[in-house]
Amino acid sequence: MSEAYLNGKFIGTVENPNEFIKKVRDGRRKGTVSNNLNIYYNKITSNIQMNDDKGRLRRPLIVIKDGQSLLTESHIKKLENNEILFSDLVKQGVIEYLDAAEEENAFVAFSREALTKEHTHLEIAPMAMVGLCTSLVPYANFSPGARISIGSKNQKQALGMYAINFPIRIDMDINMLHYPQMPLVQSVMHDVSNYNKHPSGQNMVVAIMSYKGYNVDDAVVLNRASIDRGLGRSTYYRPAIAEELRYSGGLTDEVSIPDKDVKGYKSEKDYRLLEKDGIIFQEAKVTEGDVIIGKTSPPRFLSSMDQYNFAPSSRRESSKALKHGEEGIVDFVLITENSEGNRLIQVKIRDQRIPEIGDKFTSRHGQKGVVGLIVDQADMPFTASGITPDLLFSPHGIPSRMTISHLIELISGKVGALSSRYIDGTLFDVEPEKMLRKELLSLGFRENGVETMYNGITGEQMEAKIYIGNIYYMKLRHMVANKIHARARGPIQLLTRQPTEGRAKEGGLRLGEMEKDTFVAHGASLLLKERFDADRTIVPVCEECGMVAVHDTFKNRLYCPVCGDNVEINFIEVSYAFKLLLDELKSLTIHPKLILKNKY
Predict the structure, then answer these.
(1) Residue 461 gets which letter from DSSP?
(2) Is the pLDDT assigned to residue 309 strictly greater than 90?
(3) What pLDDT digit, counting tens, does each position of 393-448 carry?
(4) How many of the other CB atoms lie within 10 Å of CB of 335?
(5) DSSP string, 368-401
(6) Which of 28, 162, 182, 252 is deepest in the core (most CB within 10 A)?
(7) Which of 88, 89, 108 is nearest to 98 (CA)?
(8) What confidence tier does 228 reach under pLDDT thresholds 50, 70, 90?
(9) Per-residue CA distances from 244 to 19, 128, 248, 343, 414 (Å)
(10) Which residue, 349, 346, 390, is CA-closest to 371?
(11) d(Cα 176, Cα 158) in Å, to the nearest integer?
(12) Neighbours of 157 (CB within 10 A)
């Protein structure tokens, strides 16, 4: 006797569970039972779990009966001729969707050749067990799963051609690679997903060698000549948006160049790029602080008297200006209306990004690194046939990560470039490495992918043979230009009087306990006196009760709110955050008493 559950709810008992499950599955394949239902039998607890709720991950598999696949050649021909659809195969019970639970009761064959009588299902294609981005990684079955999943996540962050109508779109935070290419080593998924419509990388000549320690710790060294010819160049787009809002009492925002008597007027220099209508012109060069859209708003708090007084001085300045650290060129200006019928102004700003030290590059195998040095072509190593690599990759990234697919792609890409064809690197169905090596040998190169190289600076032949080939590299969206950040003095928070947080707000860089320890270890502990006084403040303290006293500078009078005038009050230097703590303790009716000792 087995208990049956539907979506976790007890619905009854079953005398013969195996027969019941067979009936349900047959009914599902024939169409008498919902196609969305999955059934799982747990032999240990003798429970039957059925699910047809939403949000389950299900995948399609071919049904096997007596060791024979239900998907026949005639089915495949009809699919090719568009006579039947995939959904028809599901209706016919040739293909069924299993969820994670029902998969526990299934025995899935990897390929048609591996079929036995015990198998219940067959993979449509072994590649189907991974997602889209993972299936784009060539030779993925030669690397650890962790690295492949990192590689697939990296592809989502790569720059490429995201949409062909990008000049007329206004999207947030967009990057466009100038010269995207199709990879030389592809998988079936590149064709299926129309990858050539939106490629996101470039084929580079990569040598695996160290270069004076500049590519230590995953860093890469780039060839300046390659960058000058357009390698890794991209454009960064971001919009500035302003709208004329309507307020109660018939008041509205107004897009125009603000008058000088408007509250919060910046300076004439800030408004210099605006045209008569208060909007910037196209192709204007802008840097931080420049106003892009001039705007004035009605005052925030209107009293009943002010309602009838519409003097321009009562308006306040609310223009859109470039934030701290931003710059670019105005790409285009769009004037339109939003859904409420208010006037909407959108200005798109572009900024050309040329690869620089600190920009992030990666291959499709989770081998990511930042640029550590950009070297002149004359100083780069070169092969006996005169090839200079675009990028130097450190050999230390290979042994611990075991990304063999990265090494195989170097050889495959080399073969593909020399024989001018695409190499098939589909997961579990790749062009064999032995054949590629044979082909490379027939093309006049060493079959193991190494070449004799010469030192670009001294001209000497290198003793070691260098592994060199072509590989698809991607520029990631993490660029130094978006992250570089420093400050000396600047804005502080109202509550704690400490520097603001974040790059956009011109914030400070926090120095924590560990950073403090590095200063001490370097023998620069006196630096801490300078570092830790961001919110230094001087407070008067009453010697009698130990509470913070009052210093009335206007009357030049010192007194304690508890003890009055006739007490000794001394000034001490504390962090403002500590003074805040004392105030919070007072609000909890705790008496924080400061006992002062003489310094001398």
Answers:
(1) B
(2) no
(3) 999 999 999 999 999 999 999 999 999 999 999 998 899 999 999 999 999 999 99
(4) 12
(5) EEEEEEEE-GGGS-EETT----SEEE-GGGTTTT
(6) 28
(7) 108
(8) very high
(9) 70, 51, 13, 5, 58
(10) 390
(11) 10
(12) 16
Cα–Cα distance for residue pair 369/6, rounded to 1 Å: 50
Residues forming a β-bridge with 323: none
Please enumerate, as own/partner, the contacts of 113-118 that have beta carbons within 8 Å and a separation of 24 or more. Answer: 115/64, 115/67, 115/68, 115/69, 116/67, 117/66, 117/67
Q: Which domains does the chain have, with CATH numbers?
A: 2-129 (no CATH), 147-233+357-475 (2.40.270.10), 235-353 (2.40.50.150), 536-587 (3.90.1800.10)
- Each residue of 2-35: b (16+ CB within 10 Å) or e? bebebeeeeeeebeebeebbeebbeebbeeebee
Give the residue carrying structure tokens 């050539």: 196
Looking at residue 128, what DSSP letter applies? Answer: G
- Residue 185 near residue 416 (C-beta atoms within 8 A): yes
Contacts 24+ apart (CB under 8 A), 568-572: 568/542, 568/543, 568/544, 569/540, 569/541, 569/542, 569/543, 570/540, 570/541, 570/543, 570/596, 571/538, 571/539, 571/540, 571/541, 572/538, 572/539, 572/541, 572/596
Q: Which helix (H) or strand (E) holds 328?
A: strand 327-337
Is pTM beyond 0.70? Reply is yes
Residue with tokens 């004035």: 296
What tokens appear for 329 in the block?
A: 């060129």
For 369-407, letters b (16+ CB in 10 Å) and e give bbbbbbbeeeebbbbeeeebbbbbbbeebbeebebbbbb
Q: With helix as H, strand as E and coil as C, how does 264-309 read?
A: CCCCCCCCCCECCCCEECCCCEEECCCEEECEEECCCCCCCCHHHC
Cβ partners under 8 Å of residue 79, min gap 6: 85, 86, 89
- Please state, in angstroms and rounded to a whole number, the distance separating the CA atoms of residues 121 and 97: 11
3-state secondary structure 131-177: CHHHHCCCCHHHCCHHHHHHHHHHHHCECECCCCCHHHCCCCCEEEE
To the query of whether residue 218 is one of the catalytic residues in this protein, the response is yes
* Token pair in block for residue 419: 């024989």
**Exposed, middle or buried by CB within 10 Å (0-12, 13-18, 19+), for 356?**
middle
Kind of pairing between the strands at 391-393 and 220-223: antiparallel
Q: Which is the catalytic residue, given 52, 88, 218, 429?
A: 218
H or E segment to which residue 414 belongs: helix 404-419
Whole-angstrom Cα distance, residue 226 to residue 204? 9
The 3-state secondary structure of 69-115 reads: ECCCHHHHHHHHCCCCCHHHHHHCCCEEEEECCHHHHCCEECCHHHC
Closest CA to 142 of 426, 536, 558, 454: 426
Retrieve residue 405's tokens: 């697919």
CB 88 within 8 A of CB 70: no
CB-based contact 329:350 (threshold 8 Å): yes
Contacts of 64 by beta carbon, 8 Å cutoff, 6+ apart = 70, 109, 115, 119, 120, 121, 122
